[in-house]
């Protein structure tokens, strides 16, 4: 699949990397993080056989212009709308993964008339961090600890104030390796996530994670989701180390929701159950 790349200018002048491929109904992908970049090249190409697919790197991340922010969900919602507007998309299906699922939900709540369907992949629901983060942390350490040398090296790198770019990549690959149920291929699959390597936008990650802790899990958010007049499909990997029960809060709130759980997949379901993931997404957008 051939991707056409373009830099889109946000309303404050920030330059955002985008790529598009395929024909048909538009599907815009929101990558995880925060502070990472679009990793949907392969699965996006498969989806582009059935839709017009748009990928983008969020502000200050990956191939987008390096930036000092601002690092807020409101700003990222405006950036996503700039991408939509540049390509003349009146309405679009929106797929978000992990942090990108939170961003896609925030966009849909802000602009429901511009979203035909929301595909919410591997998110953590609309409750507070207490619903999932302690269990995630416990599961993370247990899974990385299956290989004590990896856990020791990750702790060593995490404890440093200064490290090389190669060491930053090594730390990320070790951290991401816990996301895969296929333990024999975990390092290999995590390495593919880091190829190409653009570096984590640390300030972006820190600020947006802090914002989530402050504002997510409020009664107002639950009420807003109860009133959302957009069909939503939740896609989970049952082996995600973030407890899937955290997403129950979102499922309860939404008036038009369907949930697909892929039993053998972890946090990146397209990597471990590509057929099941493609089927879930294509059913949602057609």
TrEMBL record:
GO terms for molecular function: hydrolase activity. The keyword Hydrolase applies. The lineage of its organism: Bacteria, Bacillati, Actinomycetota, Actinomycetes, Kitasatosporales. It comes from Streptomyces bobili. It holds the Pfam family Abhydrolase_1. This is Alpha/beta hydrolase. Keywords: Hydrolase. The keyword Hydrolase applies. Belongs to the peptidase S33 family. Residues 26-270 form the AB hydrolase-1 domain. It comes from the Bacteria.
């Amino acid at each position: 699949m051939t991707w056409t790349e373009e830099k889109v200018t946000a309303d404050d002048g920030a330059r955002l990397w985008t790529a598009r491929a395929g024909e048909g109904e538009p599907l815009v992908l929101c990558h995880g993080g925060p502070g990472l970049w679009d990793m949907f090249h392969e699965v996006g190409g498969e989806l582009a056989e059935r839709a017009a697919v748009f990928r983008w790197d969020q502000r200050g991340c990956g191939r987008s212009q390096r930036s000092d922010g601002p690092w807020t969900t409101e700003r990222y919602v405006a950036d996503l709308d700039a991408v939509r507007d540049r390509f003349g998309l009146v309405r679009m299906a929106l797929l978000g993964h992990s942090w990108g699922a939170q961003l896609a939900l925030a966009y849909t709540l802000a602009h429901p008339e511009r979203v035909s369907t929301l595909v919410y992949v591997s998110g953590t629901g609309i409750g507070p961090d207490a619903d999932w983060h302690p269990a995630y942390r416990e599961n993370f350490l247990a899974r990385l600890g299956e290989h004590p040398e990896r856990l020791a090296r990750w702790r060593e790198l995490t404890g440093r104030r200064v490290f090389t770019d190669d060491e930053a990549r090594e730390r990320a690959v070790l951290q991401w390796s816990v996301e895969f149920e296929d333990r024999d291929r975990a390092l290999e699959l995590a390495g593919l996530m880091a190829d190409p390597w653009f570096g984590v936008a640390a300030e972006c990650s820190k600020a947006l994670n802090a914002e989530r802790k402050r504002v997510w899990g409020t009664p107002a958010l639950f009420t807003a989701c109860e009133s959302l007049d957009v069909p939503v499909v939740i896609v989970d990997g049952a082996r995600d180390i973030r407890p899937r029960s955290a997403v129950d809060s979102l499922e309860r709130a939404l008036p038009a929701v369907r949930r697909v759980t892929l039993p053998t997949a972890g946090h990146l379901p397209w990597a471990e159950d590509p057929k099941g993931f493609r089927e879930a997404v294509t059913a949602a957008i057609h």
